[in-house]
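2024-03-11 09:14:02 DEBUG pipeline.ingest accepted 1 chain
2024-03-11 09:14:02 DEBUG pipeline.ingest length=187
2024-03-11 09:14:03 DEBUG pipeline.predict start
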Amino acid sequence: MTKYRLGIDIDGTVTDPATFIPHLNKHFKKNLTLHDIVEYDLTTVLGVTQKEFGEWMTIHEPSIYEQAEIAINAKEILMEWKNKHELYYISARPKHVHDVTIDWFHRFTVPYDHIELIGQHDKLSAVKKHKLDAFFEDKHDNACNIAEECDIPVILIDTPYNQLAVPSNVYRVAHWNEAKNIVDKLF
């Protein structure tokens, strides 16, 4: 049996897309829900500059990642896939949260073959380098760019912040069970 190499984003994909909301609300004194986050760039909804948000992230991201909840059914499906596919996690997280990230995977017993924190949102070179057969993403432009540039299927976890149109090889899913059905059909 051929083992396909699945590329998987972490935040908003394996972790619950609402992970950041309680932290944002507490610090920025907001009352946001996931439905209020209609664009990936959070500075507008928070009323802060990129610099202010970047400084906040640098301070708070390790604890946010440490406390992140896993998306519903993600673990069960990834456990099922661990013997069928290679699981390559490619994340925009910065390298300084590597240990926190590995600890989280171990604590939740989420299977992986490779975890790479690239510190930027552009994942094209990592997708090409690892010769991924499909990718899982929540960021709209990443999903479209990977699908078009790498000519592979991309599973887009549906969120209020990624509602723009997508190419035909981007599959929008509401949850991991739908993602599993698409992967089972494709591979």
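2024-03-11 09:14:41 DEBUG pipeline.report The beta strands are 4-8, 85-91, 114-117, 134-137, 154-157, 170-173.
2024-03-11 09:14:41 DEBUG pipeline.predict end
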